[in-house]
Specification:
globular, 380 residues, single chain, five-stranded parallel sheet, alpha/beta
Length: 380
């Protein structure tokens, strides 16, 4: 059995835990192939982040309804706005319990083991804190305290089971795991699921007829309508890109950062059908690359704005006494996976025709994960 510990940053990257890699992890856990371990600090960080996000969204709904209530003239519109305000208020009081119950239900589904902070962890963390030993970057680095408690749980698990897989985007925690003689480290959940061990296990869990039909679909994918795949990709990347922070030295923000506020249609889309990924059941990932024109928002110091040689294309408005709010279009180069998700029960039939399989491809749900993105600026 594989013993796996996942850092909170991985959970936050897929908060619904419904992208292909998490779906595959769930399948392996339910089948008893792996045992998932959840340290108390990981659960606390995941739960608090999700609860905060839900509260923020509900607050936005309530604020919008209250604004409408202040300006609505028609009686029926005011009544509807009052209903929304009341509903949002009620949702706010229950949101934390909903999020907690949903997470706990998933933990039970995957039969994960939860690990509270042990009595000796405090002293061990204190020693590492003053010594600057793993996973602290330097001595007395307070920002690393949560990772330090997670690390102590990882050490306990490695000693108990003889081996532990740690999945973390946090460089210091991942480096500490990679250097430990009883641990194996991965940066992303996708990397772990794509490992030979996981792929072999998923293959064994898949019925033979399903496996054969999945292989046939892989061969048919290059013949699938290009425009259909691009349209699915276009629908998905709006949610993947909107709100993301990007960085480039050409962005005239103090930190060279901007937030994506609008997302255009993907252009120059290329799919790589020779390196398809099979996550689980009938989830098939197609690597892709594309360019997307996006409108970015950033703050620019007024003096810097007037010092620019070319301000064409920059739309400004007042932010405060010293800064303008700026919107500007940039091209974003992206790479990732478009995953088609077919109901496996639809593939458990013998003698399916190519036409039937192609119809399943066209009707399949999709999910897009962007693994790389880069602001493209000519001349840089």
């Amino acid at each position: 059995m594989l013993h796996v510990l996942i850092d909170s940053c991985i959970y936050r990257a897929d908060r619904k835990r419904n992208k292909p890699a998490f779906r595959a992890l769930t399948r392996l856990a339910r089948a008893g192939v792996l045992q998932l371990h959840i340290p108390e600090y990981v659960k606390g960080e995941v739960l608090s982040q999700q609860q905060r996000d839900v509260r923020d969204q509900i607050s936005k709904i309530k604020a919008a309804a209250e604004a409408l209530l202040r300006t609505a003239g028609a009686a029926n519109m005011s009544a509807k706005a009052e209903e929304v305000v009341k509903l949002a208020t009620d949702m706010g009081t229950q949101a934390e319990d909903w999020v907690k119950a949903e997470l706990q239900s998933w933990i039970a589904e995957v039969k994960a083991r939860e690990h509270p902070v042990r009595g000796d962890h405090g002293a061990r963390v204190a020693r590492a804190y003053f010594a600057g030993s793993a996973p602290f970057r330097t001595a007395k680095q307070r920002d690393d305290l949560p990772d330090a408690f997670i690390w102590e749980t990882a050490l306990d698990l490695a000693e108990e089971h003889g081996a532990l897989i740690v999945i973390s985007k946090d460089g210091r925690l991942r480096e500490a795991a990679a250097e430990h003689h009883s641990m194996e480290a991965y940066e992303t959940l996708d990397d772990f699921i794509e490992s030979d061990e996981c792929q072999d296990a998923l293959e064994e869990l898949t019925p033979q007829i399903l496996t054969e039909n999945v292989e046939r679909i892989k061969k048919l994918l290059p013949t699938a309508p290009y425009d259909h795949l691009v349209q699915r990709l276009s629908n998905d990347i709006i949610h993947e890109l909107a709100g993301k922070t990007v960085r480039h030295d050409a962005i005239p923000d103090d930190n060279h950062e901007a937030t994506i506020i609008t997302v255009g249609a993907p252009e120059n889309v290329e799919f790589n059908f020779t390196e398809l990924d099979h996550y689980s059941d009938a989830d098939i990932g197609i690597p892709f690359s594309a360019n997307v024109d996006c409108e970015l928002n950033y703050a620019i110091y007024k003096g810097d704005y007037y010092g620019l040689e070319d301000t064409e294309g920059i739309s400004i408005s007042e932010r405060n006494r010293h800064y303008y709010d700026a919107d500007q279009e940039y091209t974003i180069s992206i790479r990732g996976y478009l995953t088609i998700m077919i109901d496996p029960t639809d593939l458990e039939k013998d003698d399916m025709s190519d036409e039937e399989l192609q119809e399943l491809i066209r009707a399949a749900d999709t999910s897009t994960e962007i693994t790389e993105l880069e602001v493209c600026v000519p001349g840089w």
